[in-house]
Amino acid sequence: MEKCTLQVDCVTINIEEHAGCSRTDEPVRLGVPLPRGFLTDVTHLRMQSDKGTVMPIEGRALDFWPDGSARWVLLDFPVTVAAGSHAAYRVFTDSINPSPQPETTVRILSSPSERELSVDTGVAVFTISRDTLKPIVSVRIHNSEILAPEGSVIQLLDGEGREVPARIDTISVEESGKFRSTVTLGGRFVSLTNRIFCNFLARLTFFAGLRVVRVEFELHNPRAALHPGGLWDLGDPGSIHFKDLSLSLASAGAAQSIDWKAEKNGPKGNTHERHWLLYQDSSGGKNWNSTNHLDRTGQLTVSFPGYRITQSGPNGQDPIAEGLRATPYARLTTSGGWLAATVQDFWQNFPKSLRVDDGRLSIGIFPVESTSGFELQPGEKKRHTILLDFGPPGADSIIPHFQYPVHAFPDPEWIERSQAVSYFVPVSKDSNHKYLSYIAHVVEGPDSFFERREIIDEYGWRNFGDLYADHEAVNHRGPGKFISHYNNQYDFIYGAAVHYLRSGDRRWLELMRDAARHTVDIDIYHTDEDKPAYSHGFFWHTDHYRDAGTCTHRTFSRKILPDVPAGNYGGGPCNEHNYTSGLLHYYYLTGDPEARDAVIELAEWVISMDDGSRTLFGLIDDGPTGLASSTADTSYHGPGRGPGNSINALLDAYRLTDARRFLAKAEELIQRCIHPKDDIETLKFDDPEHRWSYLVFLQVLGKYLDFKAGLGEVDYYFHYARESLLHYADWMVGSEVPYKDVLHKVDIPTETWPAQDIRKCHVMHLAGKYGPLSRKVNYTERAQFFFDRCLDDLMSFDTAYLTRPLVILTVYGFVHSYFQAAEHSFGCEARAYDFGSPVPFLPQKRRLRTSAARKARVLGGTARTIFSTSMNGMQKRIGSLLKNK
């Protein structure tokens, strides 16, 4: 047996227990990057405890290097760790000796009639119906049935309180492994008039040796919004309205008792009453009744702070306890066993409820106890994670272990060695202490992003996970809190992922997870039914310096109309706000298939919005619309954040799918928007208000070069991009200055302008990497200059620690330490390609106008010729007649 004796030979996985619970064989899932050539067969993975014991492990490759070896692998393994302690496991490869098998594994079996699916975890057998939305029909433990014959059911009540029937369209085994397996049920809730009310997806995950089931239930409104005038408020005709969505489980045998725990460090409760309810109405925070929580009429959806617990008594439901923030579980015990349940992020995703009624334990996902009901906007999703646990008499529930899982993270120096994360340096090797001190405000102190949630109460099922865009509220002077949502601007998710990997700090991981799940559900327009420019697109952050009103996370609200001229307000998803790299890395770290799908969805959106054949004008001109490549206005198709973000999404989707059409589209957009011989002076980059984002494009151009170099494709397209980058970088060396020196040219001179100077530092480093050695010193010196000025100028503002500048430095600031740590030169000389001369791109509508004008001129000239010829002929005929007279 090979053993991991040297740090360089293996991945160290650190395990930290923070919740005060001793863990035995607790399932852990973690994505880990690997160096090129390290692993070609996941069955060769081995794991060793810190005591040297070889342990069972299972891996699944999520991403591959060009040579076919795994670049990211998703690991599943059990951990045993004492309360409050730390352990270190090591993962290595061994192609000879097999990994030890776990004592129990998950097995999936079909019933003889194939109308049911059974999952055997070794300690319990769960049965799933293929026909009805009863996620779990039965649970057998030691040959005893825990559920009554009706099992479980998920029920949806419409706005009138009527049950909406569910139809299952698909059932599939999404994942089948030794340690965990996942079964999905997909279908529709269909109204009594046979119209699709909404879609659903239930994802049931089972664990070897455990009686726990994790149920992810997603509700999806597939309709398009009407969005009159480009406004996206609640109350749109495409919304669906409903009163309740609950999962209930009927216990076998008579209920004997109910026990619960409402808060992590709170007391346990117990009752023998028939009816019991824990209902979380609001966040319970200091701003629990924030105007962040409005319905379509502008009324508050919250009624009281926190949660209340009631039970049946002489006077009906009597209150027995109350509090602010519940992280609860409830357990119903019968003579033959018990069943327990909770919802992950219970209070954060309010409203929520846990109920026991006459032997039925139910979970209010969207609970009827809320007096306001619910509206799911068109194209909106929401996924909740429900935890179910079942056991025999005398056994303890392990739901608290799932509520507070151990923290696992790979050693940062291994991440650096893998080279799977761009421009990565462990925080321990970053000597830029001023920078590190600055971004630490994201996760610690009274102004951390966790604390900023409290300002506008950025909680509730639609809001939780988003950041408060406090930079938009600086000049707010009105009553109440200014509501503004960030919607992952500049890809905070990616920055949080990198800093988690750099440091192992679980706070970065928590922020990344919350933001990613929110973005996937709420910020993306999941519909096929709108125009290609909008369908499957990414919604902007709340409009600058405007309160969100009733548009939630959809930018444009009718609330602002009295303050703007008619026809000058409104819009929808746009290429300039399309961020995928954070979702990509969230997928690599967690294996969440919804994140993978979202990256591909956003890349497909880029292709669709630019496809002229899908517009009304396609019958005349089916060429590209230009919607994927414009920035600031529809006539500008030079370097800018619009095409930059489009190209970035295409590259990320290509990495996930290996579908060449994504890379081909990226190269088409590059050649459309930049050229090695561009006359840069004509692009007016001295107008930062409208042209600052050319830097975004150049940063993405560097990513493209890294991408092509990694593929070994140093071809025409590579050199076209390289020469273009260097052409612009050389102009920057001689002409670009820090933004603080030109603030007189911008409309609103905020702290964000000097924060954007970090992009100039990045571009200079890219030029140093891909440029000739003779110019490397110039590029490197300018990179250091812009890095220093960025921090110094930013700190000169009292508003330096607002959300937006912190995000910008989080996402791009660490790149500088990577280039400081070592020399990075690609070593590529220019090739004698003839790139021709720049040819301006005309978008579809401009081409149609130009073509129509040209046709009109041709037709006009032809008419004049015909008219002139006719007149000449007529004159000759008249002259001939007169002469004959």
Describe the protein's architecture and organization.
With 885 residues, the chain is α+β, with helices and mostly antiparallel strands. It is 29% helix and 24% strand. It contains 19 helices and 30 strands. The strands form five sheets. The chain has a nine-stranded antiparallel beta sheet. A hairpin with a 3-residue loop joins strand 14 (166-176) and strand 15. Helix 5 (492-503) packs across helix 7 (581-590) and helix 12 (694-711) packs parallel to helix 15 (757-770). The chain is globular and about 80 Å long. The termini are far apart.
Q: Can you tell me the residue ranges where pLDDT is under 50 for at least 5 consecutive residues? A: 857-867, 876-885
Structural class: alpha+beta
Q: Treating each run of at least 4 consecutive H or I residues as one helix, how many helices?
A: 19
Question: Which geometry do the CA atoms define?
Answer: globular
Strand order of the largest sheet: 14-15-16-17-29-25-24-19-20
Annotation, overall tally of beta strands: 30
Question: What is the gyration radius calculated from CA atoms?
Answer: 30 Å
Write down the overall mean pLDDT. 93
- Main sheet attributes: strand count, strand direction, barrel closure: 9 strands, antiparallel
Which percent range describes the beta-strand content?
15-25%
- Determine the N-to-C terminus distance: 122 Å
Q: What proportion of the residues is helical, as a percent range?
A: 25-40%
